[in-house]
Amino acid sequence: MECLIPDILFTLLGHKSEVLQCIVDNDTNFTDDEYFILSIEDRQLLKCFLNLAEEYQKLNIIIMSHKRLEGIYKKPDDNKRGIYFEAFVDGMYLALQPYRKCVNDIEKELSNNKGNKCLLAEILRKVERYKPLIVAINDILEQIEFSRLYGGQILNLLYEVVTMKFIDDKVQLSFIFKQCLQVLISQLNTFFARGVIFDPYQELFIEPKFSKNTQEFKHFSLQPSLIPSFVPLSTASKITRIGDVIKSLQQSHNQSLLINFRDISTEIYGQKKDQLFSDLLNLGSVPLFTKNEFVEVIDKFYNVVDEYMLKASFNEDSFVDHMKLIRDFYLLGNGEFYKHFLNKISSLSQKTELSLRIIKVAFTNTAQDVKLHKSVRKKFEFSSLISTNADETTWTNVKLIMETKWPLQFIFTNSVQINYSKLFSFLSRIKRVQTNLHEIFIEKKSSYCQNGHIDQLKTKLIFLIDTLYSYLQTDVIEDEYFLLLEKLSYANDFQTIKHIHDIFQTNIMRDSFMFLDEVYMAFNIILDMCENYCRYMTDITAVLNPQYKQCYDELHLLFTKKPNKLNKLLNTIQEIQVTPKPNQFLVRLNYNNWLIKSISSDT
């Protein structure tokens, strides 16, 4: 029986032995003497050896194939093998090192003590203590193969395995996990330093997004299916934000060469750079990796980046100056400018197509007329909300674009600028209608009693539009703007600034009825009617046009007792319970019971 021990050890190291297999299979063609002297118990021991050897052979085949040059990488579409699976194989090799050492030690012991007999049961006892580890690794490998796991999914599986309390071989399995974790750490190290992802097989949970037309980098996004369970979604979002900041800062400095990336990371992290990256690399060598440790390290990076962005936001009052431009131009705070600008544009009708070139020229000429600084007017451009390539658009689809300094583009995103453009088009329509009504009232005021009802209608319309515009500018925009400035004095991080601004914009849009489609559309219909009224009042042939009478009748219905469209609209506003601001509009409109009297006095 002792003569079979070399074959047994050879088999335990991952090689096949036909001799042992024939003995176990009770092959009748096998006539060697050893077969006849083996007892049933010895044959049973051989079966145990072969079962263990078979389990190890499965792993050894994978290890050996990946140690060869031609097997290091497989194509991405070939079961999604990549650098994480290679790290998994390297981890298997390290985890099974004690098992191989045990077999080699047995072989050395036998060669040094040839006179001593070695029992098979003793050998089996020594090697079988590694069987749970080998079986556990095989189970992991089978799950990877069956579910076609790759990248972060492999890392997640290993993390879940090593954190299971009933696993006895945590230490050895952690070698595999740490090898895969080291890949993630290396990727994050490059990502945090240069804003670059080394991910040839698309295995990381972060991917860059590019513009379809220009292939210009836009932002980093998450792939949820590849996020390991020890990376909370909030932490993953922080990682992408750090990358976005680095890439945007590179673009703002026009740095596209790799040699300049080092300067960017030093600029952002400052004196804390070495300690931050040291903490990140140390995650791969901690005795017991935990989710909290990973989150803590990422938070350190994020807090330093946030602190840098906060300083940049208030550098030379850039954010405050930007908000002043928002207030003056998007929200019509610069009254003198818009008085001239809106007069230069022939129509702001919701239905009339306007040339973007005419709008741009009018804006530039107005800026020159009011002696606006050249640096300010260069910050603004006009386009269409529907298509960036359009030459014409309706006023409600005009998009006012303002140039932003780094890092304010993280606050004034494209969606934020679209919202401001919607506010701009709504406020400017109201302002233009208000101006036209006042001009008509002065120019067309009748001295004849028989036209007194027309003057009354104009008076009511002017009061309605004046009240609406005054409410939006005074009760909504001014209140929220000064509240914004007050909150900014207490802001101690960049995300707080962004949050304060988001609340500011949301509150303005809410109190301007833009989230209430029924009310918002009703006001736009009234503005349409007022625009038509002004158009017909300034047309010399208006009296002969049947549409004039129809327009007049529609406006008159706003103030009639039955049916009262305006009253229905105001009742809808009164039912708004989210904020008390709309009630201030009603109070202004019904000052001294003017509205009730004006409606009741109509027949």
TrEMBL record:
Its main location: cytoplasm. One of its GO terms (biological process) is meiotic cell cycle. The keyword Cell wall biogenesis/degradation does not apply. Keywords: Cytoplasm, Cytoskeleton, Microtubule. This is Gamma-tubulin complex component. InterPro entries: GCP, GCP_C, GCP_C_sf, GCP_N. It comes from the Eukaryota. It comes from Sipha flava. One of its GO terms (molecular function) is microtubule minus-end binding. Pfam families: GCP_C_terminal (PF04130), GCP_N_terminal (PF17681). It is found in: Cytoplasm, Cytoskeleton, Microtubule organizing center. Residues 6-316 form the Gamma tubulin complex component protein N-terminal domain. Residues 320-594 form the Gamma tubulin complex component C-terminal domain. Belongs to the TUBGCP family. GO terms for cellular component: gamma-tubulin complex; microtubule; spindle pole. The gene is LOC112690706.
